[in-house]
Specification:
The protein has 187 residues and is α+β, with helices and mostly antiparallel strands. It contains 3 helices and 4 strands; from the N terminus they run ααββββα. 19% of the residues are buried.
Length: 187
Amino acid sequence: MSHMNAGQPAYQPPAPKKGMGAGAIIAIIAGVVVLLLVVCGGISALVLMPAISKARDAALSMQSMAQMRMIQQGLVTYAVDNGDTLPPLGVDLPSVLAPYGVTGEMFTSPRPPASGPSYFYVPLGNMSRIESPPQTVLLYENPTIPGPPWMVGYADGSVISVQTEAEYRAIIDAIVLPDGTPFTPHK
C-alpha cells in the first residue's frame, strides 16, 4: 500500500494549453509554402511547355534543313564529277553520295514522316540544262512530316522553310521533270 500525504491532492497532469504552440504554427506555414511552391511550379511548367515545344520543333527543323543542304551539296558535287549529270531515280543515294561526305543517317529526318522516306529527290538529269536552278526543286521533305514548316531544296543549293501547307503543296505539286512530266512520288 502506498501512503499518500494527507492533505495533498493526487497528481493530475496539466490541462492542455489553449491554442497552438509555435512549432505547430511553423509546421503549418511550412506546409502551405511547400504547397504554394508545388502549385506555382506546376503552373510555370504548363506556361513554359508551349515555348519549350516550339524551341524543340525549331531545332529539329533546323537540323532537317542542314541535312538537306548536305545532301544537295553531295548531289551537286556528284554531278560535277559525272559530266553535270545527277544520279538517276531509283539509285541508292546514300551509297552514291557517301564519297561526298553524305551519310545514310542524313536521309532520315529528325522529324520522322508518317510513312515513306524523309526526303524526296527529284532526278533532274543534267544540271547544265536546268533553266532556273533557284526555282527548280531538287529535294523536299515528305509531306507527311508534321509541319509547319516544311523544307524545300532547290538546284542552286538553297533550302527554304515553307510556313503554310497551301504554299508547300503548291510548290511540290508544280514539280516537273526535264521531259515535262509531273513528278509526283508524294501522292
